[in-house]
Amino acid sequence: MQAKLIISIILIITARGSALAQNDEPKPDKVSHAEPLYSDLVRDLGARRGEKEWNVGLSIEDKKDYHTIGGLVEYEFAPVNRLGIEVEVPFSTHFKTVKNEREIPTSGINGIKVATQYTFLVSKKHNLSLAAGYANDFEFHMIREDRKYNWDPENVFHPFFVAAKRWGNNYHTLLYTGPSLGLDLNTKELHKEWIINANFHYMFTGSKNFVGLEVNQHINHNGLSLVLRPQVRVTLSKQLALGFVTGIPVLGKEEGMSMFCRLIYEPRRKGSRQN
Question: Which CATH superfamily is domain 35-265 in?
């Protein structure tokens, strides 16, 4: 009985000492960057171990042949310093326009996305962060043909590179780019495109509130698709923020006007103060 008590005390002291040691660890360098709201990153650049974030998004899009109300549920976390992992589940429902006679996509869960991102350079001297990552998006496509529904799954492979720089205290730029390869699992056809997202933001001093612009570009066999997304982020509390985005198509035949809203919740980390 005494032996069990002694072992229990040792385990408690060891665990307590380990927790204190973790809390006393010096925090690795991290540069504050404005993160785009529509095509967001996998955790912050220079993520610190233990960081977590929940996102819930809602969008309304005009696809010209039909309207789409979509959404997403997303969870991000950093198991170790500078490494972020993300799991996202998107969903949508579609409505025909009055004059549209074409079939539209089916409604429901669109797939599951798993992504990882590693920040390999953090320079506080130059207010610069560089990262590389990979996203795998398994998409569910239900196609209605002759009053029958056929499942047409696609697996999308997307390696990417991120470069972000803060200019002074308020101005932020960020480049997100990489190829996207979608493999149709039925036909084995490979769909290729290149993604280039340029971001410009102004962050207000002493807060994480910002206004900015995403320039989303997709290059494929159909040419260039370009959408401007002006946006604003408003901090509601230390853990909660709200983002609003408007989509304005400039080039491309399929995209119409859109609205997107993102609710961001960052749980407080145990044993540490919220930054």
Answer: monomeric porin ompg (2.40.160.40)
